[in-house]
Amino acid sequence: MKRTLITGITGQDGSYLAELLLDRGYKVYGLKRRTSTENYENIKHIRNDIEFISGDLADLSSLIQAVKLSKPDEVYNLGAQSFVADSWSQPLYTAEVTGLGALNMLEAVRQIKQDARFYQASSSEMFGKVIETPQTETTPFYPRSPYGVAKVYGHWITVNYRESFDIFACSGILFNHESPRRGIQFVTRKVTDAVARIKLGLQTELRLGNLDAKRDWGFAGDYVKAMWLMLQEEKPNDYVVATGKTHTVRELVEIAFTHVGLNWEDYVIQDPAFMRPAEVDLLLGDPQKAKKELGWEPKVSFEELIKMMVDHDMQKYGQNQ
Ligand code: NDP
Ligand code: GDR
User: Fold this and answer.
1) Is 107 marked active-site?
2) Residue 125 designated active-site
3) Which one of the record's GO molecular function terms can you name (predicted)?
């Protein structure tokens, strides 16, 4: 039986990845930080199948202990302060968890179990300011937020540990991916949640920031498969994981409202409070390398994704009525 250690197990990706690995017969260990109230919502259906280890990415000693206890064949480092907007109000914390956290996890692997395969959750936010499109594994990074800067550190320290210590370390440069388990602060879920509430008469308006930003949005359930595939390869490598299609926030809003028969312009208000100090205007990934080497392709289209999320939120609030 293969053994895995997942950081960020309570998050969107951690939950889908844990499902995938349990289905494949892995023994799954999840690093979980202490919280004052329980946050097992995303993994409540598989909670009893996971062995939780208490720890924090900012605390190397807890990660060393986690690797000792789990003796993993594969480590997936998904834990992070992952909300870009908050990285301006908490830049040092973001650097510590999202950037140095990757180093801490790598260091625990290096010290305790150097033959464990390692996945780092890198991000299209590292591309930031548009230098070229579509963005590939060789596009230069120009991050535009403290979060993006921290992820660039996480990416390069992963490459460096691979080259320095011969660790099987991969960096997946994943573009935005969403699902009904997406955190409520992120724009897709904020929109689909609000659409459901407006349709059911629980809310009257939706305040958003930049409607012109373009993102390459895919389905999280598809993307965790790419993470696993990377660690099954003969050699460690870095891969862009994306759909190869881009859409504006405006298009997202239009699809979501239209799906429940509403006109978005009657409800959406642009609010400067949700504009960012520096924006990433356009993300569009080229997933050719992942397709060719991993045989990976996204299955769910942008429109299907948004409708899936709206339907989920309609059901959630509908049941509570
Ligand atoms: P989420 O925000 O849903 O989950 C983040 C996870 O990290 C949660 O389990 C959270 O735990 C955990 N975490 C936060 N801080 C710490 C800490 N100090 N120590 C240990 N764990 C911590 O993110 P996603 O699932 O969406 O993303 C997974 C990873 O992929 C992240 O690293 C993200 O930056 C990256 N990424 C995401 C993309 C996306 O579009 N979703 C795209 C590219 C990269 P808790 O529940 O306690 O808060
Ligand atoms: P992002 O995702 O910053 O790309 O990071 P988010 O959904 O927060 O923003 C996407 C775009 O929408 C614009 N926007 C708004 N965003 C939010 N959250 N709220 C609003 O009201 C709003 N209005 C407009 C943003 O300005 C932005 O352009 C996500 C995270 O999952 C990261 O962890 C991950 O690394 C990247 O995706 C790839």
Assistant:
1) no
2) yes
3) NADP+ binding
Q: Residues 240-256: what's their mean pLDDT?
A: 98
**Active-site residue, selected from the candidate residues 70, 122, 123, 179:** 123
Within 138-287, strands assigned E span 169-174, 177-178, 206-208, 214-215, 218-219, 238-241, 247-248, 268-270
Name which residue sits closest to atom 27 of ligand 1, judged by CA.
Answer: 13
**196 alpha carbon – ligand 2 mean position (Å):** 20
**Among 29, 147, 239, 267, the one annotated catalytic:** 147
Q: Judge whether 266 and 260 are in contact, CB under 8 Å.
A: no
- Is the pTM here over 0.90, yes or no? yes
Percent of the chain predicted with pLDDT > 90? 99
Q: Measuring from atom 27 of ligand 2, which residue has the nearest CA? A: 213
pLDDT tens, 167-222? 999 999 999 999 999 999 999 999 999 999 999 999 999 999 999 999 999 999 99
- Residue 257, pLDDT > 70, answer yes
The answer as to CATH 3.40.605.10 being correct for domain 183-216+246-281+300-320 is: no
Does the pLDDT at position 321 exceed 70? Answer: no
* Amino acid, single-letter form, for residue 194: A
Cα distance between residue 301 and residue 204, in whole Å? 29
Cross-strand bridge partners of residue 74: 4, 117
| CB-ligand 1 contact for 164 (6 Å cutoff) | no
- Is 147 annotated as catalytic? yes
Return the CATH superfamily for domain 3-177+217-241. Answer: NAD(P)-binding Rossmann-like Domain (3.40.50.720)
177 in contact with ligand 2, CB cutoff 6 A: no
For 28-76, the pLDDT digits (tens) are 999 999 999 999 999 999 999 999 999 999 999 999 999 999 999 999 9
| Domain extent listing, the chain | 3-177+217-241, 183-216+246-281+300-320
